[in-house]
Design brief:
63% helix, 4 strands
């Protein structure tokens, strides 16, 4: 008769321990899921990417002078067209990107208006470099390709990508001042416009639609 209370007490203790264990496991599981979801992001070295695009295109352009040399056709590639949140680092500055939009620059407290201005400058240059790269490739693949035209398009591609690189370096320079956020906020609108004829903007966007078909 004395064994029953003992068994009941043991069962209660076991159930309590199991309940605590399950709650702890559940909390840990939720925390793991939350942490993993928050930390999942793509990180890209933007300087290395630009250098790679320039090097590939330069090698291709030089190969046009040698009829017996075959070099792989460089693939046109966007820098900011990312469907998932991506961190791209330029000159030590981390740009948080998604869907052709600069969502933030890590370490800086910037207004939506300034982020929009930065987006407009960089996305325009990104579209221009892609446009010239893609057009150069399509021109080269034409059976009646004019080598000089391909070289001209490659030159425009390299020029636009270098301007993109200079622009992100200018932004990085502003972020190295004593009050970085204020410096970027007050000076971004004063930055010189890209040295590209603005008339090309409409032409570029229309041509990109045609190239995509």
């Amino acid at each position: 008769m004395k064994i029953v209370p003992s068994l009941a007490l043991s069962l209660l203790v076991a159930i309590s321990i199991l309940s605590v264990s399950l709650n702890t496991f559940g909390q840990q599981f939720r925390n793991v899921n939350h942490t993993s979801s928050a930390e999942v992001t793509t990180i890209i070295n933007g300087n290395s990417l630009i250098e790679k695009l320039l090097t590939q295109r330069d090698a291709f352009t030089k190969s046009l002078n040698k009829s017996n040399e075959v070099v792989a056709l460089p693939q046109a590639q966007y820098i900011f067209d990312r469907d998932q949140q991506t961190t791209i680092t330029f000159s030590g500055l981390d740009f948080v990107i998604r869907d052709n939009e600069v969502l933030a620059i890590k370490g800086l407290n910037l207004s939506k208006e300034v982020l929009t201005q930065i987006t407009e400058k960089l996305v325009f240059l990104d579209r221009v470099q892609f446009y010239y790269a893609q057009k150069s490739n399509l021109t080269y693949l034409n059976p009646n390709a004019d080598v000089q035209e391909v070289k001209f398009l490659d030159k425009q591609f390299i020029s636009s990508l270098k301007i993109f690189n200079t622009t992100v370096k200018d932004i990085a320079a502003l972020a190295k001042t004593e009050n970085p956020s204020f410096s970027v906020e007050t000076n971004i609108s004063k930055m010189r416009q890209p040295n590209i004829d603005k008339a090309i903007e409409k032409q570029t966007l229309q041509s990109l639609v045609q190239l995509a078909k």
